[in-house]
Amino acid sequence: MVMRFLQGYRNAWLMAVALVVLPPGSVQAEVIHKAKSSFSIRFEEVIARDNAAVFKALGQLPEWWSSDHTYSGSAGNLSMELLAGGCFCERWDDSSVEHLRVIFALQDREVRLTGGLGPLQSLPVNGLMQWRITPAESGSILTWEYQVWGAPGTNLEALAAPVEQVLGEQLRGLKEFLNRQ
């Protein structure tokens, strides 16, 4: 129990240092947990746009998601409706894939999705992705978390860093899209 407290204290201290050292608007990412059967990733990004603009942009996947991380090779085949039951889907020719499913959408504040992205779909795992948007002095703060857990032996700890890199790329794409508007 003391070790957990100290680890929490260390993580809080490292986050405070990162907030001081990193320039505003830089992506702050962290694999906050990894184990053989689970991992959790968190990003926090200050965006110079209000909550409504960030929320709306989240649903405009073809504009900010990288084509390199699609099955069809084209982000133009992606869509998502920001409503419960909405599908983060990819459709092309006679093929389709459901990447994630929206389970919660609170206008201008939060979206929760379930599912496994990319190679996680072929593993016995579950995933929960959350996008939380909070007002900030210079726009808003987007907190993006992805938690994945599964059967013992799935060796998820080896996938945490690659998933963090892919999601970080998408977050940069989202921010660039918002900056162009």
Query: Rounded to an integer, what's the Rg over CA atoms?
Result: 17 Å
**What spatial order of strands do you see in the largest sheet?**
1-2-8-7-6-5-4-3
Q: Output the CATH homologous superfamily.
A: START domain
Helix tally?
4
Can you tell me the residue ranges where pLDDT is under 50 for at least 5 consecutive residues?
A: 1-26
Number of domains: 1
Class by alpha and beta content: alpha+beta
Termini separation comes to 48 Å
* Residue share in helix: 25-40%
Q: Shape, please?
A: globular
Please give the CATH class. Alpha Beta
pLDDT averaged over residues: 87
SS strand fraction: 35-45%
The description of the largest β-sheet is:
8 strands, antiparallel
CATH architecture: 2-Layer Sandwich
| Count of beta strands | 8
Q: What sequence of helices (H) and strands (E) makes up the elements? A: HEEHHEEEEEEH
Query: Within the CATH hierarchy, at the fold level, what is the topology?
Result: Alpha-D-Glucose-1,6-Bisphosphate, Chain A, domain 4
